Amino acid sequence: MSVDLQPEPVRTGPEFVQYEVADRVATIWLNRPEVKNCVNWALLQQFGEALEQAERDPDVRVVLVRGRGHTFCAGADLKMLDADFLGTTNNSVEIAQVSARIWGRAFNLAKPTVAVVEGYAVAGGFELMISCDFAVVADDAQIGDYHIRRALFGGAGPIYRLPRYIGLRRTKELLLTGKLLSGRQCADWGLANVSAPAGELDAAVAEFVAPMTDKSAFTMRITKLAANRGLDGDTETLIALESMTCNVAHQSNDAREGVQAFLQKRDPMWTDS
Q1: Per-residue pLDDT reduced to its tens digit, 160-181
Q2: Whole-prediction pTM value?
Q3: Of 52, 97, 193, 247, most Cβ neighbours within 10 A?
Q4: Phi first, then psi: what are they for 6, rounded to 5°?
Q5: How far apart are CA 33 and CA 5, in angstroms?
């Protein structure tokens, strides 16, 4: 039996994702703390809606993804992955495709996304973390793929993203052993941008995102797009992409404003979005 994932016209039931905005920073909270923010179909749908809301909001410059209950996300809710369900090829493929599409929205969002990780980020939670542009993690967080421990396979990004972040040998080490890394180890490996003591995590996040909150939304969007597309191109294609992106950026109102603000010794007033 295939699961119907079409969004309902009006949301009913629990609020598994919460959305907040302050100081040009949107925070998307995963809100199933009683099960370590494990992912069910409703959470996936609501998370996608929250990303779309952040993308549409002209006042938002950066998007944080966090988990309630001092843990990020412990992956899929295994109650929905019983033997009968997993034994159906259509359902198994659907899980992977829907997760990959919605987690991928964080990677391709027009605005920078930051995974803020404490507690566990394993399996699907790990896939969500590496789908964000950046990760700021607690030193004592427990992070890893984990699927192999249950004879499962992560279908939402690790095969594509991990080798580009940490190389093939370390990718295989994580995927084939199911080992967990601390937040500090993730920073050492290049899986996280910043690692901080648990009590200093919020301050580390604020310090990390601050330089992005006053930048041109338009220029950040096309810069992120060019960087993402640059993962797969050959050298000549990438140079052409850079040249075209440079031209688009330089023709924008924000570019002209940035130069004028520098010459006039004042803060820029961005108008492109």
Answers
A1: 888 889 999 999 999 899 999 9
A2: 0.82
A3: 193
A4: -70, 130
A5: 23
